Amino acid sequence: MANKIDIKTVDEVAHLARLEFNDSAKAEILNDMNRMLSFVDKLSELNTENIEPLIYMTNEKNILREDVPEITLTQKEALKNAPKKDSDYFKAPKVIDQNN
After folding, report:
1. pTM of the predicted structure, to 2 decimals
2. CATH number of the domain enclosing 16
3. What residues make up the domain containing 20?
4. What does the pLDDT look like over 33-60, one tens digit per residue?
């Protein structure tokens, strides 16, 4: 196996994923991640010399309908069941703090 994952890497991945683990869970995750790497490393044993790259899973083509603009829902109907609205728009709580 080319690379092995260590506890530091598990901590970094956990931080990026905003996850917290105790020491026994970290040990299990470390073991699982190294098992995944060794499983993927098995692919290097395959001879892919004359294999074409797979771009699509099938040879099927998407058949899309013609895009025809039409009014299916009026603004008044869209706002009818909104919990917060003004005369023209949905109102939602602020999610981005401009001060940071």
Report:
1. 0.47
2. 1.10.20
3. 7-45
4. 999 999 988 888 888 888 888 888 888 8
Residue type, 43: L
Number of Cβ atoms within 10 Å of the Cβ of 10: 21
User: How far apart, in whole angstroms, are the C-alpha atoms of residue 10 and residue 34?
Assistant: 10
* φ, ψ at 87 (rounded to 5°): -65, -25
Q: In the chain, how many domains are there?
A: 1
Q: Higher-confidence residue: 62 or 11?
A: 11
Assigned domain for 36 exists: yes
Which amino acid, one-letter code, is at 86?
D
Does residue 38 fall inside a structural domain? yes
Q: HEC string of the chain?
A: CCCCCCHHHHHHHHHHCCCCCCHHHHHHHHHHHHHHHHHHHHHHHCCCCCCCCCCCCCCCCCCCCCCCCCCCCCHHHHHCCCCCECCCCECCCCCCCCCC
